[in-house]
Amino acid sequence: MVVTPLYLALLALWLLVLSARVIRERQAARVSLGDGGNRRLQRAIRGHANFVEYVPLALLMLAILEMARFSVYLIHLLGIALLLGRLLHGYALAFTMEFRFGRTSGTVITFAVMLVEALLCLYQSYRGHLIWFMT
Questions:
Q1: Which CATH architecture is the domain 4-130 placed in?
Q2: 62-79 pLDDT, tens per residue?
Q3: pTM above 0.90?
Q4: CA distance 34 to 67
Q5: How many CA atoms lie within 13 A of 41 on its CB side?
Q6: Which alpha helices (H) appear in the chain, and where do they start and end?
Q7: d(CA 64, CA 76)
Q8: Average pLDDT over residues 44-48
């Protein structure tokens, strides 16, 4: 595997940025646990949490597709789209109060990537079972 680690690293760096944003907002609001009703802190927390909810599964599917030897161009396309979607969404949610385009487009891009990955994983599973059955 040579492609997935690139996107894993870039997305890990973005996760660190989102994490630092939560820490800064907690310090500014003087809240150590929860969100204290602070709207900026709520958005930072959700930006971080939303990333953690979607990215691991998307990267796992990307790695599976790469190990199954799908086109390197397809793997890059999915990785770039995932990165773009998560950057747009995370920035919109954690760093702004009203950037609907970023939040909406980031969500749509992320869901599209995961849908394509899921369908390709199903295809890979079918292809693998077909080969196993024929041998």
A1: Up-down Bundle (1.20)
A2: 999 999 999 999 999 999
A3: yes
A4: 40
A5: 16
A6: 4-29, 39-67, 72-95, 100-134
A7: 13
A8: 96
Whole-number Å distance between alpha carbons of 1 and 10: 16
Residue with tokens 């709520």: 42
Task: Catalogue the long-range contacts made by 121-127 (C-beta closer than 8 Å, 24 or more residues apart).
Answer: 121/61, 121/64, 121/65, 124/64, 124/65, 124/68, 124/70
Joined tokens for residue 112 = 């599209």
For the chain, domain boundaries: 4-130
Task: Give the phi and the psi of residue 38 in degrees, each rounded to 5.
Answer: -80, 120
Q: How far apart are CA 81 and CA 71, in angstroms?
A: 15
Q: What is the DSSP letter of 33?
A: S
Give yes or no for a contact between 102 and 92, defined as CB atoms under 8 angstroms apart.
yes
